[in-house]
Structure formats: C-alpha cells, structure tokens
Amino acid sequence: MLNPVTNAINADELIKMALREDITSEDVTTNAVMPGKVLGSVQLICKQDGIICGLPVFERVFKILDENTEIVFKAKDGDAVKKGELLAEITGDIRVLLSGERTALNYLQRMSGIATYTSEIVKLLEGGKTRLLDTRKTTPNMRLFEKYAVKVGGGENHRYNLSDGILLKDNHIGAAGGVKKAVELARKYSPFVRKIEVEVENLDMCKEALEAGADIIMLDNMTAEDMKKAVELIDGRAVTECSGNVTKENVGKISETGVDFVSSGALTHSAPILDLSLKKLRPLERK
What we know:
The chain has helices spanning 8-22, 28-33, 55-65, 94-124, 143-152, 170-176, 179-189, 203-212, 224-234, 251-255, 266-269, and strands at 39-46, 50-51, 70-73, 80-81, 86-93, 131-133, 166-168, 196-200, 216-220, 239-243, 261-263, 276-283. Helix 3 packs antiparallel against helix 4 and helix 8 packs parallel to helix 9. Helix 10 (251-255) links the parallel strand 10 and strand 11 (261-263). The radius of gyration is 23 Å and the shape is elongated. It has 11 helices and 12 strands.
C-alpha cells in the first residue's frame, strides 16, 4: 500500500515543497497580528459526510513547522465521518496553526474527496468479481497522497509510475510496428518477473494481443457488448482490464461484462474535495 506514513522521506519533501509554495519568505498576515509565540488550540470540523483520509499528512504539515505541535484525533483514516463532527484538536504556537492551516487542509480535503468518491464506486461493484483500479492521471507531486487515498477508499493501485510496469498503449504499439512486435520487444527487454499489459481498442487487436502472449489485456474505450465478447475470447488466458471514461453512472454495466479490473482516472482527476475546516481558534496563554 502506498502510504505517506511509511514513505515519510518522500512525503516530507513533497509537504515542504507545498509549504514553500504558500510561504515564500513569511506569513505576513500572521506575523502582523501575532508577533510572538502564543500557545493556542483550534478544532478540525467536518462540513459534509464522507470518508476521511490524510490525517497523518495533515499532522505532518504542522509538525514540520513545529515539532512541538500536538494533535488529538477523534477519527482515523478510512472512517466514515458526518457533517458537524469534531475530527481533531490541534494545540501549539498560534503562528504555526495559522500558517499551516491552508496547506494541511488542502491535503486533507483532496485526499478525503478521493477516498469518498472511490468508496462510492467500490460500493457499486459489490457482489461482482470486478475490482477498481486508479491510473497515473494524478495531480503533479500529489501521486503518493492520491493513490494512498484510493486505497483508503477501498480501491486498488495500478502501477505507481513508468518504472513500475510495462503497459503498451496505442502509441507504443505504433512505434514498435504492431501489437505482436511490441510484445516481443517488451518480452526481450524486460526481466521475466515483469508482466506485460497491452491496450487494445477492438476485437482484432484483442486477438493479436492474446496470440502474442500478453499477460494483461486492457480493453480501452470499447462498448459493453464488445467488452463482453473480448472477455469471452480471452477466457481466462490473460487478466482483463477495462479503461476509458469509467464513471459512477456506467461502472455497474461494465462489471456485468465479467472483466477482472476496471481502471478510472476520474478517481484522482475528478473527485470533488470533502469540505473540512479549522474553527474556534483560541489562545490558551499569553506571554
């Protein structure tokens, strides 16, 4: 599982980049009204129902700014949360609470939105064999967090990046001179432990990929009728994946074709955020 907690080194660098984007030299507003350290607290409030995700990343933002910041969580990643629910109380230097607020919420709202949307689609697939995958259609420098959110929402991760696996798409096939040649070249180049996936757009390409020995055949933008025929043709000799314009509205029909996996870029590029807010900031002491 891609997890920002266990990938702390990579996650920290990305979080620091996000903080530098928001604070190039200083938080001039906060420093104007809060010239010195004052201990304070603020509450993390949920403003709509959904699946919470990214709490460790939310915490890390404040810890990077000041390791003495303390957070008491009332929920954990993967929990279903309700509008108005208190999710955490954050205590620390008020300057840190104010300066880290937007970056922390940006991560948490984005990741929770993805987990929520993913969960909704996973529920539509319940009772069938088809499993849900994400894609590489992620926000730049957010892939680690967004793919983790898909897992928290009940989906599964496709390859993390181009170094993870071989996926021969239309342009790779065109460059190689055809499906058969592309598979042959990929098989020759890659170690035997790597599987080879081929994207096909019609039944003729599907036959060619099967005859070439593809391990996984991706049925791209095919009609439900043709997908069903392709699954029957493949007959378990390769893993099947459907891709292309997969939404909540059509995923149920797609699963009826018997495909093993369905991949959806919408999980990470179109999921709306989950509305969250930091409220009731109050000083605990003055120095």
